[in-house]
Design goal:
With 463 residues, the chain is an alpha+beta fold. The chain contains 15 helices and 22 strands. The strands form five sheets. It has a six-stranded mixed sheet with strand order 3-2-1-4-6-5, with helices on both faces. It has a five-stranded antiparallel sheet with strand order 7-8-11-10-9. Strands 12-16-19-20-21 form a five-stranded antiparallel sheet, with no helix packed on it. It catalyses: cytidine(34) in tRNA(Ile2) + L-lysine + ATP = lysidine(34) in tRNA(Ile2) + AMP + diphosphate + H(+). This is tRNA(Ile)-lysidine synthase. GO terms for molecular function: ATP binding; tRNA(Ile)-lysidine synthase activity.
Amino acid sequence: MEQLVDSFIKRLQLFSPEETILVAVSGGPDSMALLHYLCSIREEWSWNVTAISVDHGLRGQESADDLAYVERICREWDVPFVGATVDVKGYKQMGGLGTQEAARKLRYQVLENEMSRLAADVLVTAHHGDDQIETMMMQMTTSARPEAVQGIPANRPFGTGRLVRPFLILSKKEIEGYVKLHDIDPRIDPSNKDTAYKRNAYRKNVVPYLKEQNPRLHRHMQAMSERVREDQAYIRKQAESVLEEVDFGTEFTKSARFSIETFKTFPLALQRSAFHLILNYLYVDKTEDISYLHEEMFFNLLNESKPNAELHFPQGLSIVRAYDEVTLSFAKKADHTSFQYEISVGETIEFEDGHLSAEWTEFAQEEGTYDFVCDAHHVQFPLLVRTRKNGDRMRLRGMKGSKKVKDIFIDQKIPAKMRDTWPIVTDSRGEILWLIGLKKGGFCASSESGVWLRLHYENKAVT
């Protein structure tokens, strides 16, 4: 067994000499074997090894005895010991969590705090190959995303350093053989056999059958876990090139915006990875509520024929498509209220994004998209500036007949969310003169008049 673990440690470079090692020990066979093994090589590596045991308070005196047992063995093996007791039942009720989840969160809080106090480099836990099988089988069962089936990492950042699991290369049977060989008398937690917990059910009903088919399955699963993690790390790195095409918002108003056309130029694997990297940014890595169904909805949004569409994801995240542009944000949907103002010559009306002014001029020439000029004989005052109404139509310059304002918005690819607040200028008869910045209308072509009405819109974003 020792040779397998030694080789595993060296291959993955799990440890370095002269590190401070904190070992999580429950008193069970796995963690006692781990502590014994680390103690056997601590001089060789010049390690400072400390054991920590957490009593979850779920089994009364029995779990308190487990803590006392670990403390006694640590004295015999000359290992510094830290003990802690947590209130899982109270934490579970307060947070609305399951027993196993509440116990895990509290346990890792204690472990992280102790790592910080000791300035430890490494936290070591006794997860083994059979645990890896259970984990990966559960992931396969609950997730349709292949990249989510990665198992337990042998080495990952944690607290002030790293969390390392050197026993992932071993089977439960191999650990039991080590315990017997070295006359270790561990404590047994009866709750590990309670199949009301999902992991225990897999341990009892699924893993034994699979290991009958392949006794070395734990090594196969570990190799698969390592390969998937390496592949996914590479894909994520490549997906960063996709993120270069994404406009991210500020730290205070987190959002992401990109062009569908540009996004889809990348391979689908990178699109998927980029999608989840964007979600990690927006959710700050807390994406437990995101499933493969959300991913499918997202890609359907990109590929469907509708130019305007919207999705609603957990925690209030909105994904809005407006023609070629997609925006992901937690921004609250604005209350679009209609408006109608009168504007007289010599006045200026302020809008959120700009302002509109009206004046008389002796020059009939328009200076661009945001200028509207018309001779006074073809305008009936007062002028109105308003939002659109159902059935709005306008007569476009140079065209016969009229056209629906709704169709103009569609032709110009104006996002649906902007249409209800787009300013429209009419005269007192309701004749639409100007769909500001988009289309100009009216019979404004008389060279006889020397007095012209000039409307000018100035966009604040431009200035």
